[in-house]
Design a protein that fits this description.
394 residues, alpha/beta, Collagenase (Catalytic Domain), 13 strands, binds zinc ion
């Protein structure tokens, strides 16, 4: 599953309107991308139940024949990802990936997701067969054979997590496409031009997308010849203090650069706002609730950015908020999302293809790999980012 490029999610452009662009008489529930998503997700749940059964069989075989290996066997396969209010992701380290091709494209769809589930189903069936075979022979007590099966199980569990994120990602972006077809039509045209590989086109796109629209709440604490420090007020209703400390450390660790003897850094000024304060005149959302994120983030003070929860897939609104999904979040992706709060747009292009009854195929294209905003997987924060911000704040 290492081919999956989904350890990040992106922003919703400013001015994004929640308009349901559906043909007459069609409702959200009847849309092809929703129905197809439900069908694929049902397949995924069936697969997960089969994996759970395999885990139980494997565990009892290990218990009977080689109990010393039990610590090698992790817990049962996790439940499918649930998204909702106050559910925070796990932040993981993300070393820069190696050099990629000059232009890399990625695509996501229900048929592709189905393909991954089918592949994992084949691997699981093979492991089940191996387990049945050793059950009939002396090999059941052979630690090497059991260790291999435990390894197979672990790999399948890891891929299960990735597919689960993939499902959330498709849900979120296919809905975004359905709701804002005209904007995605424009992006798709841009995608085609970029894909044609014209260097001039890539440069032009880069120039337009690269300039940040820096919000007025971004402050300059220090602007010396040796050190430049920016402060970003970040309001949050997240209750998990450990997560907040980790997020602050991660963002500040990634958002730094040195060039020509000048050190550039960011200070995140985390400001807690309890949900009870945001919802003084209404019902306070509870853990696990599904929220209207635009309305929810609208309740926060506007002299700072917002960090909140409740998204299916982590995404941002430029200059305003980062909404976290429950799927694992790499520190690089978190830094990318934070870049949106500083006013940067995505440096990559997201278009789509209409697959009719099978929903939409989401198409993504990256052409610059050393920039955190164009390549959330391997890009870096550079002094250039800070200089662009300083130019805007001048
Ligand atoms: Zn983004």
């Amino acid at each position: 599953m290492e081919c999956l490029f989904l350890r990040y999610a992106s922003r919703v452009v400013p001015g994004f309107l929640v308009v349901f662009v559906l043909s007459a008489g069609q409702t959200y529930a009847q849309s092809a991308y929703v129905q197809e998503g439900d069908r694929v997700e049902a397949r995924f749940r069936t697969f997960r139940n089969q994996l759970d059964q395999f885990y139980r069989s494997l565990r009892s075989t290990v218990e009977q024949n080689a109990p010393s290996l039990l610590p090698e066997l992790q817990d049962a396969p996790p439940q499918p990802v649930v998204f909702g209010y106050q559910l925070v992701p796990r932040i993981s380290d993300s070393p820069a990936a190696g050099n990629a091709a000059p232009i890399a494209s990625f695509s996501y769809s229900w048929p592709i997701t189905q393909g991954y589930i089918d592949n994992e189903g084949v691997r699981l069936a093979r492991a089940q067969q191996d387990l049945r075979q050793i059950g009939d022979t002396e090999g059941a007590g052979d630690p090497a054979v059991l260790l291999k099966l435990i390894g197979d199980y672990r790999n399948i569990v890891t891929n299960q997590g990735t597919i689960d994120q993939y499902i959330q990602y498709n849900r979120f972006w296919q809905r975004s496409i359905a709701q804002d077809r005209s904007r995605f039509d424009q992006m798709t045209k841009l995608y085609e031009v970029l894909k044609s590989g014209l260097p001039a086109a890539a440069a032009a796109v880069q120039q337009i997308l690269g300039k940040p629209d820096v919000p007025s709440f971004v402050g300059i604490v220090r602007r010396g010849t040796e050190r430049v420090l920016l402060r970003v007020p970040l309001y949050t209703d997240i209750e998990d203090q450990d997560f907040l400390a980790e997020a602050k450390q991660s963002i500040e660790g990634m958002w730094r650069a040195t060039e020509a003897g000048i050190e550039y850094a960011i200070e995140v000024d985390m400001r807690r706002v309890p949900a009870s304060q945001l919802y003084r005149a209404g019902t306070v959302p509870r853990r696990g609730d599904h929220l209207d994120l635009r309305a929810h983030t609208g309740r926060f003070p506007d002299d700072g950015a917002v960090l909140t929860t409740g998204a299916e897939a982590t995404h941002s609104l430029v200059g305003r908020y980062v909404a976290l999904g429950p799927g694992d979040l790499s520190s690089r992706t978190l830094a990318h999302e934070f870049g949106h709060l500083l006013g940067f747009r995505d440096g990559y292009i997201r278009g789509y293809q209409d697959l009719g009854e099978r929903g939409f195929e989401i198409l993504e294209l990256t052409s610059v790999f050393d920039d955190i905003m164009t390549a959330p997987r391997q890009g870096n924060v550079r002094a250039a980012h800070f200089k662009l911000i300083l130019d805007e704040l001048r």
